[in-house]
Write a structure and sequence with these properties.
NADH Oxidase; two-stranded antiparallel ribbon; alpha+beta; 8 helices
Length: 231
């Protein structure tokens, strides 16, 4: 393998990049279709097994999420992974308190009607059953060692992409997850001792699916419903 070339741009080092491999048109189509079919088999799961998952696997999932692109390469995220049963119980209690308020007072009747096919309610047992919870925090800004504030850019977009990478990595590991967003989620900042400039973005229960799992019999939109082409 040839050594990477290095140049300076604006006084900063840049190294040469070569794609791993070039594919023929037919190989490219086959790979894209295989990847689609594989990822299309992913589902949001609310029925978890309590079977343990190695911490080393969770570390790799977070490493994978951290490869996502971000505004000005600021990487404005923190992923908190929780396996401690006591902490998971506290998170469930606080989340269900917010969910109860949402279902009883915050959500419109139309919103609750739209949720009916998914079978959701204010009870979130998966927050204790799943062996791990991963909470993605977004860093709206950061403080350096002197306490000086440094802005981050395109924070929601960056963290959203990283969470997409995380979901794909979880599926690739043979595990399941759910995007859980109790609103508001500020209780996670205090429970997990995060600084004020970190805001909870999405909570992911992570683990194996339960022995018997049922998911809503729903369909994804067809390509024609989600895209347009100008050729």
């Amino acid at each position: 393998m040839s050594e990477n070339k290095k140049i300076l741009i604006n006084g900063y080092a840049h190294v040469s990049f070569q794609p791993e491999k070039s594919f023929t048109a037919s190989e490219m189509f086959e790979r894209s279709e295989t990847y689609y079919n594989w990822l299309n088999s992913r589902r949001s799961i609310r029925m978890f097994s309590d079977k343990p998952v190695s911490k080393s696997v969770i570390e790799n999932l977070i490493r994978t999420a951290s490869t996502a692109p971000s505004g000005a390469h600021k990487q404005p995220w923190t992923f908190c992974a929780i396996s401690n049963p006591e902490m998971k119980s506290k998170i469930r209690a606080a989340a269900e308190e917010e969910e109860k308020e949402s279902y009883n007072h915050r959500m419109s009747e139309r919103w609750k009607k739209d949720l009916e096919p998914l079978g959701t309610d204010m009870h979130k047992p998966f927050l204790e059953t799943a062996p791990w919870l991963i909470v993605a925090f977004k860093k709206v800004y950061e403080l350096d060692e002197e306490g000086v504030k440094h802005n981050n850019y395109y924070v929601n977009e960056s963290v959203g992409i990283a969470c997409g990478f995380l979901i794909s990595a979880i599926h690739n590991a043979g595990l399941v997850t759910l995007t859980h967003t109790p609103s508001p989620m500020n209780f996670l900042t205090s429970l997990l001792g995060r600084p004020a400039y970190e805001k909870p973005f999405i909570l992911f229960p992570v683990g194996y699916a339960a022995e018997e799992v049922f998911v809503p019999d729903i369909q994804r939109k067809a390509l024609e419903g989600i895209s347009c082409f100008f050729e």
